[in-house]
């Protein structure tokens, strides 16, 4: 094959379009493949049109703001996706690879390879749409999780004379899944009920059980005489649900003592023991009992604790003590230390500080949901002050 | 995070020189000034930077609310001026940065001595009696074009682009990187750029200004350059021989000469 005419033929009939342009995009040469692809005639392009002129407006802006600067900055640009307007008026999706030839200051020209990419681009469009749909669904799921979660955590605890109450909740990770932690406080026949609990697992199924736990616990005090009997009825409700989930709950029946302070009758269904903060230190209260909804045999008991003025009881879910940093856990010792440091603060300061410590321990991203409820009996002085104002 | 890191600020030239701040437009980063800025280093303190969301800026500092209008970008310019304690500033803005410069100068007129507006447009979309050159539909097309061209971006790209300024072995990986960023940010910046209408801000500008207008600029046509010149009291207009929208790359000598003559 004659080398010169061979190369000429290669240029004209290569399996991709070739364009040679001035540095500003004015077309000097277009090969036969390009003309066939686009339906344009050489005499309409050469010396008459710039590459930009063959692009729809959106791509023209892209050309000026991305393609041309890239060529100037690095003398090449790769895989630029644009459409060429064909002579017939329709569009041809293409990919462009281009190099800038010549030295800065001297005459320069741009060599552009044009690859038809109709199928690939429509596939990319589908992928793009699929991704947008996925992102949209993810956003919806996150919103739904947030709304559902909010229904498990009361917007505020009720105001009870003689008590200082505070609750805080923070979801695990980015908060895009419904966690199983909940707490609640409501009036019952015998005073007030304070509950905090945790359903195993996350997501929709856990949310169903959390919901079941919340309304069962609200309804049970009307029939059942003691906290342990209330937890037992929740246990049976969860078992009847035939779910793999189980629940831990700390249930406290709160009765205000006439002379200040209160009595807590406490039953624990597989839940971590709350911490009783007194002038003498911190102690764990309640007798550990069985997980609810798991085994057939139940072992639950009621323990009564007196909470005097100046003292508090801190309820929490396992996300506090099992907060992880590498292979270390936040642990009981750290929990007690933080609580002892803050025991003279208000309920909301105690709860807030504990959450902050747990969060800081995990560099701000929680490995598990955390719920904390603090019940404090204010000092008599404060209580009197409060009553007088 | 320091503003200097956030905006990948580069200071060169004479430490005691008058400050000359170069601002890039939509699409690429401070490299847009690579052929122009060095010519001013013997006289000026030359300041280059990337807007948050562009180039090697800290993408995590991108706040969609703040950057939902050009005022957020003007605040980047002001933050840098405050951080470096720049006064008597000459500001050179390319494309959309021209208007960012106008907004910054309007906010703190005492801080700015001159504005050089390279290919400015106060509004890209045609309006009653005003020709910006584009329709709203065109801008939607641009957003589609961006989507197609940012397909290869993945979150893994960010650290590569950010953390390894000049590592040649990453050259393959970094193809097109001067003009690349998080596609979501690029879309938002495109929207802010091309949907903005800052015509009223031109009237408020009292800073001395030069308008550099290229021939055959499809982004900012000559009529728009003339509009800006007419709206800015006492401004100068230079019609350049350079064609296209980026004379800072295609005709650096002519650009340098025009800026020097004005300053």
UniProtKB/TrEMBL annotation, chain A:
Source organism superkingdom: Bacteria
Domain PAS: 3-55
Record InterPro entries: Bact_Sigma-Reg, PAS, PAS-like_dom_sf, PAS_fold, PPM-type-like_dom_sf, PPM-type_phosphatase-like_dom
Keyword tags: Hydrolase
Entry's Gene Ontology molecular function annotations: hydrolase activity
E.C. number(s) listed in UniProt: 3.1.3.3
A UniProt-annotated Pfam family: SpoIIE
Top-level EC class: hydrolase
Official protein name in the record: Sigma-B regulation protein RsbU (Phosphoserine phosphatase)
Organism: Nonomuraea roseoviolacea subsp. carminata
Upper lineage: Bacteria, Bacillati, Actinomycetota, Actinomycetes, Streptosporangiales
TrEMBL record, chain B:
A Pfam family this chain is assigned to: Abhydrolase_6
Gene3D superfamilies on file: alpha/beta hydrolase
InterPro entries, per database record: AB_hydrolase_1, AB_hydrolase_fold
Domain of life: Bacteria
Location of the AB hydrolase-1 domain: 20-258
Family the UniProt entry places it in: Belongs to the AB hydrolase superfamily.
Protein name: Sigma-B regulation protein RsbQ
């Amino acid at each position: 094959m004659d080398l010169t005419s061979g190369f000429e033929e290669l240029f004209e009939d290569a399996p991709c379009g070739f364009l040679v342009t001035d540095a500003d995009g004015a077309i000097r040469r277009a090969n036969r493949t390009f003309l066939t692809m686009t339906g344009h005639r050489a005499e309409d392009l050469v010396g008459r049109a710039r590459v930009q002129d063959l692009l729809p407006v959106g791509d023209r802006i892209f050309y000026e703001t991305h393609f041309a600067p890239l060529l100037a900055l690095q003398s090449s640009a790769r895989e630029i996706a644009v459409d060429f307007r064909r002579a017939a008026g329709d569009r041809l999706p293409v990919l462009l690879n281009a190099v800038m030839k010549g030295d800065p200051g001297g005459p320069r020209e741009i060599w552009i390879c044009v690859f038809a990419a109709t199928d690939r681009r429509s596939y990319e469009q589908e992928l793009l749409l699929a991704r947008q749909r996925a992102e949209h669904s993810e956003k919806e799921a996150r919103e739904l999780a947030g709304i559902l979660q909010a229904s498990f955590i009361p917007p505020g605890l009720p105001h009870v004379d003689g008590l200082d109450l505070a609750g805080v909740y923070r979801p695990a990770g980015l908060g895009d899944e419904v966690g199983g932690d909940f707490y609640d406080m409501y009036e019952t026949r015998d005073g007030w009920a304070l509950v905090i609990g945790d359903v195993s697992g996350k997501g929709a199924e856990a949310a169903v059980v959390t919901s079941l736990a919340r309304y069962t616990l609200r309804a049970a005090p009307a029939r059942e005489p003691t906290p342990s009997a209330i937890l037992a009825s929740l246990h049976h409700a969860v078992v009847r649900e035939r779910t793999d989930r189980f629940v831990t709950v700390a249930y406290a029946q709160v009765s205000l003592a006439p002379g200040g302070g209160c009595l807590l009758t406490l039953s624990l269904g597989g839940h971590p023991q709350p911490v009783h903060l007194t002038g003498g230190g911190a102690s764990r209260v309640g007798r550990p009992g069985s997980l609810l909804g798991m085994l057939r045999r139940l072992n639950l008991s009621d323990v009564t604790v007196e909470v005097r003025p100046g003292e508090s009881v801190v309820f929490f879910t396992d996300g506090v003590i099992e907060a992880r940093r590498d292979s270390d856990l936040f642990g009981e010792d750290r929990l007690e230390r933080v609580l002892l440091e803050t025991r003279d603060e208000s309920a909301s300061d105690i709860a807030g500080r504990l959450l902050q410590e747990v969060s800081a321990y995990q560099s701000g991203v929680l490995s598990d949901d955390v719920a904390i409820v603090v019940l404090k009996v204010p000092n008599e002085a404060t209580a009197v002050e409060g009553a007088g104002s | 995070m320091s503003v200097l890191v956030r905006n990948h600020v580069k200071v060169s030239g004479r430490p005691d020189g008058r400050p000359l701040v170069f601002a890039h437009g939509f699409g690429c980063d401070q490299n847009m000034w690579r052929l122009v800025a060095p010519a001013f280093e013997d006289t000026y303190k030359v300041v280059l930077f990337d807007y948050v969301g562009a180039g090697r800026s800290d993408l995590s500092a991108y706040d969609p609310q703040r950057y939902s209008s050009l005022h957020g970008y003007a605040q980047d310019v002001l933050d840098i001026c405050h951080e470096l304690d720049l006064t008597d500033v000459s500001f050179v803005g390319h494309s959309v940065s021209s208007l960012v410069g106008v907004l910054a100068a309007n906010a703190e007129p005492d801080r700015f001595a001159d504005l050089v507006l390279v290919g400015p447009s106060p509004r890209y979309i045609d309006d009653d009696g005003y020709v910006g050159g584009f329709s709203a539909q065109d801008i939607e097309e641009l957003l589609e074009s961006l989507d197609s061209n940012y397909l290869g971006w993945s979150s893994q790209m960010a650290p590569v682009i950010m953390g390894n300024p000049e590592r040649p072995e990453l050259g393959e990986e970094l193809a097109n990187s001067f003009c690349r960023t998080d596609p979501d940010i690029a879309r938002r910046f495109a929207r802010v750029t091309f949907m903005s209408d800052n015509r009223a801000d031109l009237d408020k500008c009292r800073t001395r200004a030069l308008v550099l207008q290229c021939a055959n600029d499809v982004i900012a046509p000559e009529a728009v350059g003339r509009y800006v010149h007419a709206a800015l009291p006492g401004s100068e207009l230079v019609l350049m021989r350079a064609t296209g929208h980026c004379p800072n790359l295609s005709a650096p000598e002519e650009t340098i000469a025009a800026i020097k003559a004005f300053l």
